[in-house]
């Protein structure tokens, strides 16, 4: 069930610069919070200034007033949703892609709930004022032309619901990546439809020129950021770095490594443990961007990634031809040696999650232990390279579904493999279920949370 390989360790290296990075990160988060809350406060003030509290005299007016503020805040959160994953590299380098992803997920849910509340209170309020039932008010609002922009608003709402529903973990695991990616792309259409509903017909915006200019500036600023960071910057970098596939090498059953060459790649300032969004310019995949970590430290003329065939796209990566042009957006992630605070380090990898771990080993010195969790020993790709780094390596093979493998990497087992685990900085990468289980394990072994760095492999 378990195979253990051990090798010598490297010399310790000084760990510096952590406090300044933490301070910049805290300052960035504070500034973002102030900007976000400040704009939300401005929106509430515009709503109040529009008479939505002082001029409310009936139940219908009260309900539609609630509908207006929930609609305004929902639209604002939709714009924030775009900015959170607009690939703003300076922001991502300070805050971290994982944290931005968490913010994006919770903001998305809040956005949807506000929009649904806007729909609910709008229908209820106007039904009350029109003295008809809710069932009769719905077709009156949408089809009879009494309230302009309702058709596009209805379509936009359904798109928001579909995007959030597709983000639920169970659905994501069953949905093909290409369909999931395309569905999330429709969020931009939903926001655009919101413009045509909100700007021409919103009560506060029609009656208040200042409010209208304010909202238009929010939309246009978001659009400008999106165009710059999602279109202009990637296009400029494609011309600047001239990336191409130089070599496709099989590492094991269904696993291939791609060596990507280009010009003066040191200007990317990439580090081991980071990932890029890769777009291979072939006839069938030019429109898809997929996240893959570097599987070796970057050099001035080459990057390497290692991919396991788990779906339609990843299964076809091995058929890419040398010379294929590549666009890479990034690097992203703070799963790097720069996050290290302790001299002793434990790197834990699960399956193909070994790729950033392998790259980290190129940039780490000192007392390093690697634990590599696989189902079968034959699944341990890049094992020879891990051994050659000189780090202490434990390959743990076995199936949790059977009795013999039930306790693999339990707190007792991990302490047996690495007796001083509580004294180490932990880097953990693998499938979400595995990383969550091992996070609980290292916490049970009294490793402080600040010394645990996690990268989850999931689209």
Question: Can you give a write-up of this model?
Answer:
Helices cover 51% and strands 17% of the residues. It has helices spanning 18-49, 59-84, 89-95, 97-130, 134-143, 150-166, 169-174, 177-201, 203-207, 209-241, 312-316, 354-361, 383-388, 411-417, 432-444; strands at residues 2-5, 244-252, 255-261, 275-280, 290-293, 302-308, 326-332, 344-350, 367-374, 392-397, 425-430, 452-456. It is an alpha/beta fold.
Average pLDDT for all residues: 83
Biggest sheet, strands in spatial order? 1-10-9-8-11-12
Strand content: 15-25%
Count of structural domains? 3
Helix and strand composition category: alpha/beta
Low-confidence stretches: 1-16
| DSSP summary, beta strand count | 12
* Number of distinct helices: 15
What is the H/E order? Answer: EHHHHHHHHHHEEEEEHEEHEHEHEHE
Helix content: 40-55%
Radius of gyration: 26 Å
Which overall shape is indicated by the principal axes computed on the Cα atoms?
A: elongated
